Amino acid sequence: MKAKTLSASSFKAPIVKANALSGTFAFTVDVEEWFQVGAFETTFTKADWPSLESRVELQTLKLLDFMRGASIKGTFFCLGWVAEKYPSLLKAIVNDGHEIACHGLDHDRLFTMSKADFKADIQRSKGAIEDVTGVTVIGYRAPSFSLTPNVWWVYDLLDSEGFKYSSSLYPVKTDHYGMESAPRAPFYPANSSIVEIPMTVCDVPFRRLPASGGGYFRLMPYWLSRYLLRNGAKQSSAPAIFYMHPWEMDTDQPYVKEAPLLSRFRHYQGQARLPAKLTRLAKDFSWGRMQDIYENILTEVKVGK
C-alpha cells in the first residue's frame, strides 16, 4: 500500500508560546527493556522475552540516582508491560517527583496495529500505569516515533482515553523513523484537542539533523549535541526535548552478537561515555517535566473542536 503524505489541512496552526518555565528544556526517558528496542526486533520475538535477562529495574534505578544527584526532574514514558511487572519501579519514579506518561503496552509500532488493537493497547497500558501510581496519565509517546500519516486516527483514540498530549513525531527523515513534513513547534492535529509536541530538530546547511538525543547523543561529540539542542529550540521557538533510555547507561547488559552489525553499533556504541555527557548536559541547560513546561498549553480549553 502506498504511504500517505500529509497536507497542510492535517494541522491546525502551530502553537508558539513562551513556556511556563522560561529557558527550561524537557528531559524525557523511554522506559523499556534492552531487548524490546527496535534494533533487536529482527533478532528477538516476544516469545523470547521470558528467557532474556531483565535489567530495566536496575537500569532505571541507576538513572534515577543520576537525575537525583543532578537535580533533574523529567518525564518518564513507561511501557505498560513494565508497569505490570515492576510496579515498585513506577512508584519510585513518581516518588522522585517525575512525571509518569505512557509509551504503549509492549513497544508495538503504531502502523502494525488496527484501531481496535491500538485502543486496547492504550487502555491496558494507561490503566496499568495509573493503577500502580495513583497518578492520572496525560502524556503519550509512540514506540519508535511510529506515528505516520497512515495512522493519523490515533489522535482521536488518545483523546477519547483521556490523554492531553503526545510526543510521537520526529520532524526529520531517518532510515528508522521520522516525518519531515510535520510542524516543528507544538500543534493541534486537525479536528483534535490532543497537543502534539514534536521532538527537536536543527536545520544546518544542506540538511536537517535530529537534536533530541537518543542514540545520536551517544554517537555525536558533545559540543555538536549541545549546539543542535540550543539552536533547534531557537529555530522552532519552542523548548527543546531531550530523550534517552535507561539501558543506554548499562555497559553490563548482554551483548547480542546475532543482531545485524548496524543494530549492534546503534545499540552499544557510546554507552561508556554517556554518564559524563549527561553530567555536562545537566550543567549546561535547565531541565523539567513536559507537563510543567507546557502547562499553559495543556490547560487551555479547546473551542470548536
From TrEMBL:
Q: Which Pfam families match?
A: DUF3473, Polysacc_deac_1
SUPFAM superfamilies reported in the protein's UniProt record = Glycoside hydrolase/deacetylase
InterPro entries attached here?
Answer: DUF3473, Glyco_hydro/deAcase_b/a-brl, NODB_dom, PuuE_HpPgdA-like, XrtA_polysacc_deacetyl
Q: Which residues form the NodB homology domain?
A: 38-305
What is the documented function of this protein?
Is involved in generating a small heat-stable compound (Nod), an acylated oligomer of N-acetylglucosamine, that stimulates mitosis in various plant protoplasts.
UniProt family annotation: Belongs to the polysaccharide deacetylase family.
Q: What is this protein called?
A: Chitooligosaccharide deacetylase
Species annotation: Kordiimonas pumila
